[in-house]
Predict the structure.
Amino acid sequence: MDAHSQLRQPAAAGVTHGSVRLILRFEGLVVLASASTAYATVSGDWLVFALLFLTPDLSMFGYLASRSIGAICYNVGHSYISPAAIALFGVVAGAPNAYGLALIWIAHIGFDRMLGYGLKYTSGFGDTHLGVVGKRA
């Protein structure tokens, strides 16, 4: 199949491919860099950053229960909604440490998206909104 016919092929429902996938992965890099830079501006402790950076991946333990629960847990841990809520809490409650936690979490999500790990479908861990993990779109 040539490049032009690949562009004409419809993507599976809910899955990005081609240049759109590349743009979304580049956005992940931009989010990672931006959140890390913002963390530096709030004088975050880099040891704390390193220790907490992979914490959102604990959400994968949901897969021990089932694919459905695993996908829900993973998506909660890898959506920007939760860290945004923590940052908002930091603003409202005057808790500046919340900003740092939110920025670490956002950096992690950007890192995962840069690598092609997207939000999960219940059909399996490798089925993401960015395509199948481990395969090129």
Observations:
- The longest helix spans residues 18-41.
- The beta strands are 120-121, 124-128, 131-132.
- The CA atoms of residues 22 and 114 lie 9 Å apart.
